[in-house]
Amino acid sequence: MKRLVVVSNRVVNPECKAAGGLAVCILDGLRERGGLWFGWNGEIVADESGVAVACTRYDKVTIVTMPLTERDYQEYYLGFCNAALWPVLHYRLDLARFTQESSEAYRRVNNHFAETLAPLLMTGDLVWAHDYHLIPLAEGLRARGVRNRLGFFLHVPFPPPDVLFAMPEHEWIMNAFVQYDVLGFQTKLDQANFTRFACEHMGGEMVSDELLRIGENVVSVSTIPVGINVESFAAAARRPEAEERIQWLHRRGEPRVNIIGVDRLDYTKGLPDRFRSFKRWLELYPRNCKAATLMQIAPPTREEVKAYADIRHELEALSGEINGQFGDFDWTPVRYIHRNVPRDILAALYRGSQIGLVTPLRDGMNLVAKEYVAAQDDDNPGVLVLSRFAGAAEDLQEALIVNPYDADDVAQAIQRAISMPREERIERHAALLARVREHDARNWMCKFLQALDAPSIPLAA
Ligand code: ADQ
To answer: Considering only CA atoms, which of 154, 159, 164 is closest in space to residue 90?
Structure first.
């Protein structure tokens, strides 16, 4: 079996118990095959003199990390990755900030990564880079003579060409993409947007459903939706400690519906719109007022980027407004928790919530939707209310699919979920769970590695 080399902007310490599902899945893959994980260790040093590469071994897995300088952190990570690429890829041109310094930093850091990684590669290694931070990594590796198979998975959406055109660097970014041998996207829509750009604006040609010929390169382009480890998440939700947590959630005695939202505090997740939809539900169905509470768990993220600080203030104001207007001595309509929660508690909260409200304005996949489904009690499951703009909606059609921009639509879906008969809930949940199982984390990894391990396709004359 060939060695796997994973490259991601952030590397997770294998001993970290709080590591998310995806990180655990990648680690399992690395442990099984033996491999190397390379990337940023999350530390920031003053300047280049402090950049030291660290190498640690855990059984068959080697972890190689390096810090970023303060300048690279500002210009590459906060600047290009999170203030330019992230908003563009999520169709939010209004929030995108382009500067020459940040795009240069993006090239610089990717080059630095390539320079550090290239000598560590061995013939036959399969190299798998993750996400928008590393689009130009392949170019940097090829420039250093690396001939290994190189794959890239985009965890976030890929927008239509017209959106990408707004980015001053779009040509270079697109050329960098096609230096990889294998490209994976979350949804058919993302894949179609990408191939449309490549074929209509770069002279590419699809030689089969999943093979793009472009200039000298033949690139395999596939849709491989990311998933979760269903069994371990479901098991966490069934533990006795989880049951205690669920009892606590309903301790007030009266049967009150808990509506749960779990998202990083990111403007793509549609949190203010979600709060406004909940408010709309309170207005439209006043008889039900004290029947439900919205529990929103939203840990802080990228707070140094202005758009993220803005959304935090907006959300605090909205929850205060709703609680002030509708709350009572015995009822707080919105419970807003601005911090990380351990995964087993999260699993219990999902299971104890009759509605999972997942309403991003745009999302690559959204694992919370899948976690919510996996955590439910098969005999008495809750209802998933899901944005049509989450990648997960391509697959999870038995959820109540909503338009997150339309508060009335979401309010009506909440009402429908509250009054949905048990039989219908069971039926919908069984279909959803089957899909979540079919596209689980293991399947995602196997399918990508299968494409990456396939022989190179020679150019037809
Ligand atoms: P994210 O934007 O981070 O991921 P998502 O897919 O929902 O979004 O994953 C978030 C993860 O963080 C989930 O596993 C969730 O349980 C966890 N989480 C969220 N809030 C938490 C809290 N308060 N405490 C603890 N854990 C919390 C990016 C893309 C997505 C894509 C994933 C994977 O933006 O579209 O689905 O990568 O490809």
So the answer is: 159
